[in-house]
Each structure stands twice: as C-alpha cells, then as structure tokens.
Amino acid sequence: AQRVTQPEKLLSVFKGAPVELKCNYSYSGSPELFWYVQYSRQRLQLLLRHISRESIKGFTADLNKGETSFHLKKPFAQEEDSAMYYCALTGGAGSYQLTFGKGTKLSVIP
Amino acid sequence: DAGVTQSPTHLIKTRGQQVTLRCSPISGHKSVSWYQQVLGQGPQFIFQYYEKEERGRGNFPDRFSARQFPNYSSELNVNALLLGDSALYLCASSLGTVNSPLHFGNGTRLTVT
Fold first, then answer.
1. Is B43:A104 a contact under the CB 8 Å cutoff?
2. pLDDT (tens digit, 9 = 90+) per residue, A46-100?
3. Nearest beta carbon to residue B45 from set A51, A99, A101
4. How many Å apart are CA A100 and CA A85, to the nearest integer?
C-alpha cells in the first residue's frame, strides 16, 4: 500500500530563516511525488513535482529514493509562504490517484 | 480562467439522507477526480473519471457513486449518509494525459447531523 508521512503538523520559522518540510513515502515501485500548497482562503494548488526538477517560489524538493523522502526546502522563508503544505504521490504512468499526507502548516513569523 | 467550479459550497444533511455534489471542470479538461478531506487530514481519493469512464476508485463503500457527463462535468452521490461522511469534498480536473497536473476546486463542505 502507498503511504505518505508528514511528521510535523505545524512548523514555525522566522522570516529569512531556512525552511524544510519533511515528507517520507512508502511505495513499491517508481512513484511520482508532488507538493501541493493551500494558502489562506484559496484552493489547493500544485507547487512542484519531482519530474519537473524546477524551483517554484524559491522552493525545491529532491526525491531521495534511498531514504524514500521528498523534503521541501527554501533557503529564506517569506511571510507569504505561510500556508498548508501537502506532500502527495501517485503510482506514475498516468495514474491520477493521489495519496496525500496529512499536511504541515507552515507559519512564518515576521 | 474560471477554474474548477463546485456546487453547492455548503450543505447540511441528516443521517440517512442522500446528497449530490456537482463539479464543472476547466474547459478542455476531460478528467475529473473526487477527493474527501476530513478535518485535520489530507485529501483522500474517491474516484477518477476520464471520458465518462471510471478510471479509478478509492477505498470507499458502495454508498459512494459518481458519473461524468458528455460535457465532462461530474456528480458525486452519497447515499445513506453517516455522521462520518461530514467532510470537505474536493473535485479536481485535468487534461487526462500523462503528467498533466490536477486543478482543484474550492470544494463542497458537507455536514451530516
């Protein structure tokens, strides 16, 4: 069975400090990993995906198959980064059955 | 960009009743998926439809059903409502091709009393 674990429910950091949101997964195969974000009063939206290998809003995430992790990182947190972040995976090959973690609420303190 | 639209935004039902939730995908998107999000949890996959065919089903009882219409809009039906069905129901659409991202709606908040 596929599972996504986000160990922190809440993460508070000061503005300008580095951010790391942890995500570990369990999947017997080659999954696709995603980070979704939900800002206050907005809909859930895709932040980034591992196959794109891109940086969005200063965030990056590297898939570590050895550690089965996909941690989200940003070197300098901004107040506008405060949001709910969800890590998710699919079985790849066009599957759209996303399995989400429980989410981590990031609070950036001014 | 109108985005994915869901109706109604809020709904209150009594145990045992039936409910129908509606979703209109982004124009051009042929795939619609439904997710249930209970408070404090991440969204949980219920169904995926593509070109009016069911492509996937999550671990939900048969009380949950869905369909997709020729215009690609979709309905999610839940029969014999239980208190535990109280949740935010999210609809997401995509082109349905490999690697096309999901676009979520704002959801329908269902409360069962």
1. no
2. 999 887 777 889 999 989 989 999 999 999 999 999 999 999 998 765 566 899 9
3. A99
4. 10
State which residue of chain A sits closest to B49, comparing Cα positions: A96
Token pair recorded at residue A77: 């947190």
Q: Which two tokens stand for residue A20?
A: 């790391």
Name the DSSP class of A64.
B
List pLDDT tens digits, range B36-66. 999 999 999 999 999 999 988 999 999 999 9
Structure tokens at A35: 């980070």
Task: Provide the token pair at B112.
Answer: 């069962």
Collapsing DSSP to helix, strand or coil, B83 comes out as: helix
Give how far Cα B45 sits from Cα of B14, B29, B34, B48, B56, Å: 24, 19, 6, 8, 9
